[in-house]
Design goal:
Elements (H helix, E strand, L loop, with lengths): L1 E10 L2 E11 L4 E5 L6 H9 L5 E9 L2 E2 L5 H7 L1 E4 L6 E5 H16 L6 H14 L4 H4 L2 E2 L5 H15 L3 E5 L7 H15 L5 E5 L13 E6 L2 E6 L1 H10 L2 H5 L1
Parallel strand pairs: 3-10, 3-11, 6-9, 9-10
Antiparallel strand pairs: 1-2, 1-4, 4-5, 7-8, 11-12
Length: 248
């Protein structure tokens, strides 16, 4: 599904990713962990197409297409979803308005039939139910006045509505209390744990991985993946930190 080969980039002339390679197949959940400044969020933003992240080498293909040659909206329409560590507020635009236009714009790009108002509301209610989010919340402006946990739950509702093939979730567990973490973890599983989908979780901590069980865990340091393993690797890092891995 996603193949990253020797990817390098820079921000404002500073090299961040330095030859990163990773393959994610359909049906797999991968977790990336690593110390601060390792390049985890940079990887997510580069794959999502955020401006200012200049690719200087390597490649990234998504479903056989050159991901790096696509504009951000084309990547989204192709089935890539990027979840942010700090979801932004959009005053004056309701969640329902934002989500319906987002979904239908992607459908137009793919040549699919758009949803009418009734169809969309039924879909929104279904996905909001997975995240225990009241529909009244979706009538409010996007993330305005939302707590950290509410923002993350609303973002997962967005993911459910857009129904991506690949979700890249950048520290989705940030700012979540215990109850919200369980709800968000269950929502990710319900939406994305399917044979034709895949997830790349970027996290600092084991706690999210207790609810969203990864197939593979990777350590990113110095702009490269320096170690890969199964779920047990996350437990090892939680116990011992990154020192031993980085010293190897």
């Amino acid at each position: 599904m996603l193949t990253i080969d020797n990817l390098s980039n820079e921000i404002d002339g500073k090299a961040i990713l330095k030859g990163l390679s990773l393959t994610i197949n359909a049906g797999e959940i991968h977790a990336i962990m690593g110390p601060n400044g390792a390049g985890k969020s940079t990887l997510a933003y580069t794959l999502g197409g955020r401006p200012g992240y200049a690719v200087t080498g390597g490649s990234a293909t998504f479903e056989g297409a050159d991901l790096l040659d696509m504009e951000p909206h084309e990547r989204a329409a192709a089935g890539l979803f990027l979840g942010f560590q700090y979801p932004v507020e959009i005053p004056g635009v309701s969640n329902l308005q934002f989500l319906r236009e987002s979904l239908n714009s992607q459908k137009r790009a793919r040549g699919e039939a758009e949803l009418n108002g009734g169809e969309f509301i039924r879909l929104a209610k279904e996905k909001a139910g997975l995240l225990d989010l009241d529909m009244d919340m979706l009538k409010r402006p996007v993330n305005v006045g939302f707590s950290g946990g509410e923002k993350k739950r609303a973002e997962m509702v967005q993911m459910g509505i857009l129904d991506p093939r690949l979700a890249i979730l950048d520290e989705t567990d940030s700012g979540l209390d215990i109850d919200a973490l369980k709800i968000v973890g269950s929502g990710i599983n319900a939406i994305m744990r399917k044979p034709d989908k895949a997830v790349l979780l970027i996290t600092h901590y084991q706690r999210l991985l207790d609810y969203v069980k990864p197939d593979f865990v990777h350590v990113l340091a110095g702009g490269r993946i320096v170690k890969s393993g199964g779920p047990e690797l996350a437990l090892e890092l939680e116990r011992e930190g990154y020192g031993e891995v980085l010293a190897a």
